[in-house]
Amino acid sequence: MTTASTNATQTSPATDPLHLIDVDHVRFYVGNAKQAAYFYAHTFGFNISQIADLTTGSRDESDYLLTQGNIRLMFTTPLTKDHPAAEEVKLYGDGVKDVAFTVHDAVKAYEQAIKNGAESAREPREITDERGTVVVASIKTYGRCILSFVSRSGDYALPKVKAGGEFMPVFKKMHSPVNDHNTANPCGLKYVDHLVGNVELGKMNHWVEWYAEVMGFTMFKHFDDADISTEFSALMSKVMSSGNNLIKMPINEPAPGKKKSQIQEYLEWHNMAPGVQHLAFRTDDALESVAELRRRGVDFLALPDTYYDAVWDRVNTMLTKHGHKAVKEDHTRIKDLGILVDADDEGYLLQLFTKPLQDRPTLFFEIITRRGSQSFGKGNFKALFEALEIEQERRGNL
C-alpha cells in the first residue's frame, strides 16, 4: 500500500474545505425515473421516500429519492429534450451520473477543488425557501461523471434528512405500498461501502493522481494483472480512499489478455466512455440480505461448487495465521446462497455481485459484510472473473 501526500492531510477536519461528512446521495440518470424507482424498491428493498416532479413544481426533470439505511439514491429523468440527462441516457442508457458528498461549505469545497486543478461542471447554486437552504456545486471527474459538494442548513440539514425530513425545496414526501412491504421484509443494506469506476487503458494512474491532487484522497490498495486475471482476461485496479476513509473509490483499467476483460466490455457498451461500474452496499448480515434479495428475484453471479472445495482452507489458514476467529456464519448456508468469502490480516469479509441490472452490461451492485477485513476480496478475484467470463460469453462479448 502506498500513500500520496495531499493538501487535505495538512489540515484538520474543521478547517479542511474538502473534508467529507457523508455520501449525500448518488444520482442516476435514467429513461423513466418512476419505473426505475419501483424496480429498485421491489428488488433491493429501497423505500420510495420523496419525489420532485411536475406536481411539486419541478418543470424540467422528475426526481425520485430512494432510501435504505444511510443510502440515498436519486433517480432523475429529463422532462425536456434539452435537459442534460437526455443526452446522457441517449449515449449510455441508465447509469450513475453524480456522486454527491455532504461538506461543511459547498462553495469553499468547490473553490478548493478548482484551486487543486479540478474542472467545473456546475458553479455553486443555492436552493432555498423559508425552511432552509441547500447549496450544491459540482466538478468533473472521469468520463462525463461528476462529483458534487452539498452543504445543508435549516430543515434540510443532513441529520433531519436522515430522520426522514425533506431532501430539499421542491421535494415532497410520498408513500407507496412497496414501502410497507420493505419495512416488513428488510434487505438490511446500510450504506455505500465503495464505488468503482472503469477508465480506458492507460488512464488509471492519471485518475489516481487526480483524486490525490484534487480531492485529497490517498491510495488504499493496488491490484495488478497478476492479482486480477484468468486464462482469458485481466485488469488493473487502484483503490483511492478519502482522508477519513468515508468512501473508497477503486479505479479500474483493462489489461492485455487473450480475450476481453469485463472493463473492456463495459467501455464498449458505454460508448467508450469511462464511468461508474458498480456500487457496493454494506450490510451487517450478508446471509440474511442475500437470502431476501434472492427471494425478491435479484440475479447474482453463479460460482461453481468447486469454489467451496478450497475456500475454507484458504480463509481459515489466513485467519489463524493472524490470530482471528474462524468464520462464524454457517458454511453450508454460505454455499447454498452462493456467497464468496475472503480473509486478510485484519479479518474476513463476505461478498456477492449481481448480474447487470439493465440490458446494457454497464452497471451492477455488490453486497458486502466486513468482519474486520477492509480489503476487496483479493482471494476471490479468479473465481469471480471466471464467473463474469461465463456471463460475458453468454452475451457474446468475451
Descriptive key words:
398 residues, alpha+beta, 2,3-Dihydroxybiphenyl 1,2-Dioxygenase, domain 1, 2 domains, nine-stranded mixed beta sheet, eight-stranded mixed beta sheet, 11 helices, 17 strands
Q: What's the helical proportion of residues?
A: 25-40%
Low-pLDDT parts are 1-10
**What's the count of strands?**
17
Count of separate structural domains = 2
Query: What's the pLDDT, averaged over the residues?
Result: 90
- SSE succession: EHEEEHEHEEEHEHEHEEEHEHHHEEEH
Structural class: alpha+beta
Give the strand content. Answer: 25-35%
Shape: globular
Name of the CATH architecture of the largest domain? Roll
Radius of gyration: 21 Å
Kindly identify the CATH topology of the largest domain.
Answer: 2,3-Dihydroxybiphenyl 1,2-Dioxygenase, domain 1
Number of helices: 11
The CATH homologous superfamily of the largest domain: 2,3-Dihydroxybiphenyl 1,2-Dioxygenase, domain 1
CATH class of the largest domain: Alpha Beta
Q: Taking strands numbered 1, 2, ... along the chain, how are they ordered across the largest sheet?
A: 6-7-8-5-1-4-3-2-9
Specify the biggest β-sheet: 9 strands, mixed
How far the N terminus sits from the C terminus, by CA atoms, comes to 32 Å
